[in-house]
Design brief:
The chain is mainly alpha-helical and 159 residues long. Helices cover 45% and strands 10% of the residues. The strands form 2 sheets. A 3-stranded antiparallel sheet has the order 1-2-3. The longest helix has 18 residues. It is elongated. Bound molecules: zinc ion.
Length: 159
Amino acid sequence: MPRGVYDHHKIRGRANETARKDYSEAIASYESGMRIVDVARIQGIRPQVMGKIFKRRDVKIRPDRAENCYQWKGGRKISTDGYVLVYSPEHHRADRNRYVKEHILVVEKAMGKSLSATHPIHHVNFDKQDNRNENLVVCEDTGYHAFLHKRTVLIQERR
Ligand SMILES: [Zn+2]
């Protein structure tokens, strides 16, 4: 059999398999508020496949919130400038995609209050993704933050 035809046959076979399976439990879980990614994980299938199965069975798919997104990676990702971002839709410093830099969350938790953008947070070991409390220093302003960087360079040069 030519390769393409065989592959197509294989895909059809898999689709028939999912069509036969009983997904009433998965549907009940989703309709009771469980996220599609979690339902899919329990079923051992990918979220986009779960979505297709639901659509085929006329399950009403909830509005596309980030956590229902097929690309959902647990609410953590790396920003283009190298910081860890955490999905925090209610946060006062959430970006337009509702993510906040993790180091802000760590500092705010330690201080027990919110931190304004006028106070930069410095990573002591210069690893932007090392957001352990002991690696973070809250700066009075951008000037002090710049000073910390300059100071580190001077110390390194003296060695
Ligand atoms: Zn810094």
